[in-house]
Design brief:
48% of the residues lie in helices and 13% in strands. By secondary structure, the protein is α/β, with parallel strands linked by helices. The protein has three domains: 2-157 and 313-331, Rossmann fold, CATH 3.40.50; 174-309, Rossmann fold, CATH 3.40.50; 346-447, no CATH class. The strands form two sheets. The protein has a six-stranded parallel β-sheet with strand order 2-1-3-4-5-6, sandwiched between helices. It has a five-stranded parallel β-sheet with strand order 8-7-9-10-11, with helices on both faces. Helix 8 (186-195) links the parallel strand 7 (174-179) and strand 8.
């Protein structure tokens, strides 16, 4: 145990927040709140440190607004004098100036980053100057962090928690299942299975049926499926090692995953997990393992043993802080490290501008807590003074309250148009290639497709 205090800055997993009058809009469009971060980070830290304080910045922002949240974080650091502040970086709620203020107090700030296969250039790298350590689940991103002067650590984040499995009495309710929201790429794999008359149970938003499922339901599906599929494509069709790989194995499920380079660093392929690279290989391996029960179950059990021994969230978090503690012993614990500052280009600034605008918009539409929207709108325009929709809502704020709902509905109708065009054009092969171009991707990200 590390005899020090740590503050965890995180947005918690709470299914009820998906129906919160304010948070439901932020969560749906901006925060992939499908994982129990209290289990993935909170509980491990409580075992590793003598004192772990958990601060839910997202829910707190809904209560007091973004300015007060950041002031509260700084006050908490001044009061508790923690050795570390661990920030689970997802969006822009914790401000760069707040991270800088925490470091001035002598606290070592560690940022954990997700989806760096596609988020490094448009999100993660801009935070490097405000952090002492950057932790990324993407091994390819680590040297890119270091090129910017960061102290970078690789760790497979969001690995999960162990599910007890009675290997002598497995209850398999599904032949083939996939858990995950419907995005371009995944539906192509699923459609190919359907074309070949291979039934697959699909769970998640966008597929019809129940839609979103809870974490507990997800674990049960993994545990009770003969074959659990995983597709390695990210939001913009790059490949990445998904947390789902570890979650399936920790639940005792048999994993058939799209291959991504580096996967063999974690599991022994064909002995602990099984991979495919194309449609034909996927079809062949589904047929083979559905008809070879003993071999399939042996692989699932081997994967479960490997995962429970090395890849629980406790293992991952403990390894990260072991590396940091060793590094601090080598370098000395004075908090003097300062990576060089980066100039954020206009296109990159459009994204945080849009994020803060969505907070302001929702606060205003819900008439939530008086004037909390003002700080969010000011932040939006500070990032992008040309955000026409932020100015639109600024003008609407001066109008009589009975006029505003119609103007809010006008924005909502306009907002849906780019998304519809994207998915419509994405079905045309030639246009699909254009949509995957780097600049187009960044613009799409700004529009939150």
């Amino acid at each position: 145990m590390i005899n020090n205090t740590i503050i965890l800055l995180i947005h918690y997993y709470d299914p009820e927040e998906r129906n919160h009058p304010l948070l439901k809009n932020i969560i749906k469009n901006w925060c992939g709140i499908y994982l129990p971060f209290n289990l993935y980070f909170g509980e491990p830290l409580q075992k590793i440190f003598s004192k772990a304080i958990i601060y839910d910045y997202l829910k707190r922002e809904a209560e007091i607004g973004i300015r007060a949240v950041n002031e509260e974080i700084i006050d908490l650091v001044k009061k508790e004098r923690p050795k570390y502040a661990l920030w689970a970086a997802w969006q822009y709620d914790v401000l760069p100036s707040t991270l800088a203020a925490i470091r001035k107090e002598g606290t070592i700030v560690v940022g954990c980053f997700f989806d760096d296969e596609w988020r490094f250039d448009n999100y993660s790298k801009w935070w490097v100057p405000y952090l002492d350590y950057c932790v990324s689940h993407s091994i390819d991103a680590v040297p890119r962090y270091r090129e910017l002067g960061a102290r970078a650590i690789h760790a497979p984040l969001n690995t999960g928690i162990v599910v007890d499995v009675d290997w002598s009495n497995l209850k398999e309710r599904y032949d083939i299942s996939f858990v995950g929201s419907r995005i371009v790429g995944r539906d192509q794999w699923i459609n190919e299975l359907k074309k070949r008359n291979i039934p697959v149970h699909v769970f998640g938003e966008g597929w019809g049926g129940k839609g979103y499922i809870s974490f507990e339901e997800m674990q049960d599906i993994f545990k009770s499926s003969k074959i659990n599929l995983n597709f390695s494509g990210t939001y913009f069709r790059t490949l990445g090692i998904k947390g789902r790989i570890f979650e399936v194995c920790l639940a005792g499920g048999f994993l058939l995953t799209e291959y991504v380079p580096g996967l063999e660093n974690y599991f022994e392929i064909d002995k602990e997990i099984v991979c495919f690279r194309n449609n034909d290989e996927l079809i062949d391996k589904i047929g083979y393992y559905l008809s070879h029960d003993e071999e399939r179950r042996a692989i699932a059990q081997a994967g479960w043993q490997r995962a429970t021994g090395e890849y629980t969230s406790f293992h991952t978090v403990a390894r990260v802080f072991s590396q940091i503690e060793q590094d601090l012993m080598t370098r000395g614990e004075k908090n003097e490290y300062r990576p060089p500052k980066l100039k954020m280009p206009f296109l990159a600034r459009m994204i945080p501008s849009q994020y803060h605008f969505q907070w302001a918009r929702t606060l205003m539409e819900e008439s939530y807590q008086g004037g909390l929207w003002k700080d969010s709108l000011a932040l939006s325009l500070s990032y992008n003074p040309f955000n026409i929709w932020a100015w639109y809502y600024r003008v609407v704020s001066f109008l009589p309250s009975f006029i505003r709902p119609a103007l809010f509905r006008l924005y909502s109708a306009t907002e849906k148009l780019p998304r519809a065009l994207y998915y419509g054009l994405g079905s045309v092969p030639y246009l699909k290639k254009i949509l995957q171009q780097s600049l187009v991707k960044k613009v799409i990200l700004y529009l939150r497709m």
